[in-house]
Design goal:
Strand order of the largest sheet: 3-2-1-4-5-6
Low-confidence stretches: 1-10
Oligomer: single chain
CATH class: Alpha Beta
Shape: globular
Largest sheet: 6 strands, parallel
C-alpha cells in the first residue's frame, strides 16, 4: 500500500490541523463549553494526538491553522449574525485563548497559518493553497474543530480547489452527536473521504 507521505505520482501529502487552540480545547476556553457531547470532544483530542504522532513519524507534512484576532474585531465587520457575531459575543480568539493547546504545539519545520481574516475555511485569505501547490501536495488529511464549521468549510473549499481530501472525523468534534452524524451522511459523501483515526494509521 502506498505511503501517504509520497504517493505513486511522487506527490506528497499533508495533515492539516484546524484550530487546536485553548479557545476550543482548554476547560477555560470560551468556546469549549459549547461542546454538548463531551465524550466526542475528549475522544477527538485523544485521537488527534495519535494521528499527529503517527504523521510525524511518517514524515508527512504538518500544517497548523489557527485563528488570531484583534480585540476590536474590526476584520469581522458589523457581524450581525452567524459566526462573525458569535466570535464577538464569546470574546473568542484573543490573547492566551489563541495559544496552541498543550500537546499540539508546532515543531520546527512545521508550517503555521495565523493570517486568517475571520473566514471559516482555512483556505480563505491565507497562504494554504499556494503553500500546498508550491510543495506539490495534493493529498490532504484534515482534522480539528469544529467539525460542522471550520473543518467542513475547509473540506468543501479543498474539494472545489481540486485536492484529494480526507477528513479524519473521529479526530474532529462537532458540538453534538447529531451534527457529527449529519456530516457523515449528508456532507462527507460529496466533498471528502471520511476516515477514522485507525484507518489513517493503518495506511502507513
Amino acid at each position: 500500500m502506498t505511503d501517504h507521505a509520497t504517493n505513486e505520482a511522487g506527490a506528497r501529502s499533508a495533515l492539516i490541523l484546524i484550530e487546536y487552540q485553548n479557545d476550543w480545547l482548554a476547560p477555560t476556553g470560551g468556546i469549549n463549553c459549547q461542546f454538548q457531547d463531551r465524550e466526542q470532544i475528549d475522544t477527538a483530542i485523544a485521537n488527534s494526538k495519535k494521528v499527529l504522532e503517527d504523521a510525524r513519524r511518517r514524515n508527512i507534512e504538518i500544517i497548523h491553522v489557527r485563528m488570531v484576532l484583534e480585540p476590536n474585531y474590526r476584520v469581522l465587520g458589523e457581524g450581525k449574525y452567524g459566526l462573525r457575531k458569535m466570535v464577538r459575543d464569546y470574546g473568542s480568539f484573543l490573547g492566551e485563548q489563541t495559544d496552541f493547546f498543550p500537546g499540539f504545539e508546532p515543531r520546527d519545520g512545521e508550517y503555521v497559518i495565523s493570517e486568517r481574516t475571520g473566514g471559516s475555511s482555512a483556505f480563505a485569505a491565507t497562504t494554504l493553497d499556494s503553500y500546498l501547490r508550491n510543495n506539490r501536495i495534493f493529498d490532504i488529511y484534515v482534522m480539528g474543530f469544529a467539525l460542522r464549521q471550520c473543518v467542513e468549510s475547509t473540506v468543501r473549499n479543498a474539494h472545489d480547489l481540486g485536492y484529494h481530501t480526507n477528513v479524519i472525523y473521529d479526530a474532529s468534534a462537532a458540538f453534538t452527536r447529531e451534527q457529527q452524524t449529519s456530516f457523515l451522511s449528508d456532507i462527507a459523501p460529496f466533498y471528502a473521504n471520511a476516515i477514522t483515526t485507525q484507518a489513517f494509521m493503518a495506511q502507513a
